[in-house]
Amino acid sequence: MSMKRKRIFHHPQATAPLSDETNQRCAFPEVVENQGNLQDVQIPLDGLDYLAAVRKEAMSLNSFKSASIQPEKSETKSHNPLYKEVTQPVCSPEPLLKDLYHMVEKHNKKLTTYPPHLLLDSSTLPSTLQGWRQTIANEKPSWAFVASTDLATILNIFENCAYWLENDTLDVQSQWLFCFCCKLPDILNGEDVSTLRSALRSLRSTHTTFPSIQTSASTLNAVLVFRYGQSDLL
């Protein structure tokens, strides 16, 4: 194992005095002692001369330099556009949706407090989606029928309603959709809300020329916005 070489100092270590400003010792004491001769430094030959030249240049500079900003000249000629874009005020759908939601809230309270003895027996309700499709297309809705329908069935109907729409029975089908909107509960999980959003997109993209279907879609839109917090649908 090789022995460590002992360090030999060829020159005595110099210690600079403490600075009054920084309370630290300068790394180059010779520069501190020779600051009076900074004017004689021309071309730095070593590190000390270079440091002295830098200090000399720093002392000759201003502490800061302010930038002068010239004010912009105002143009005397007014530029008239070749054409002006006609902007029409955009009507917000929020007032209409609020009115629809107030109607839904009114009927929702009626359905949640519906007398139990007036509810229909489950055996009288359709047991399959195909049976519900026939019922929605051929029979007018009743509050007893809607109050007796469970949430799972209503969500399945919303999920498939866009494929069931028939031009001859759109008015009746739109009434069913409005009634089912009134039966929706106050709280739904994320998956069920996503099902309603998909149903809304389907209703908006089909039968766009039929006001009754679009009114039912707006009712569902109002429920999603004001009951389930889907404000991006405004």
How is this structure best described in words?
- It holds the Pfam family SIP1.
- This protein is mainly α and 234 residues long.
- The chain folds into two domains: 13-61, no CATH class; 94-233, Up-down Bundle (Methane Monooxygenase Hydroxylase, Chain G, domain 1), CATH 1.20.58.
- It has nine helices and no strands.
- Helix 3 packs across helix 7 (170-183), helix 3 crosses helix 9 (211-226) and helix 7 packs parallel to helix 9 (211-226).
- The longest helix is centred in the middle third of the chain and has 19 residues, at 94-112.
- It starts with 28 loop residues before the first helix and ends in an 8-residue tail after the last helix.
- Mean pLDDT is 79; it is low at 7-14.
Just name the CATH architecture of the largest domain. Up-down Bundle
Helix content: 40-55%
CATH topology of the largest domain: Methane Monooxygenase Hydroxylase, Chain G, domain 1
Structure annotation, total helices: 9
User: What is the strand content?
Assistant: under 5%
The H/E string reads: HHHHHHHHH
Mean model confidence by pLDDT: 79
- Please describe the biggest sheet, giving its number of strands, its sense, and whether it closes into a barrel: none
| Total number of domains | 2
Q: What is the distance, rounded to the nearest whole angstrom, between the alpha carbons of the first and last residues?
A: 82 Å
> Low-confidence parts lasting 5 or more residues at pLDDT below 50?
7-14
CATH first level of the largest domain: Mainly Alpha
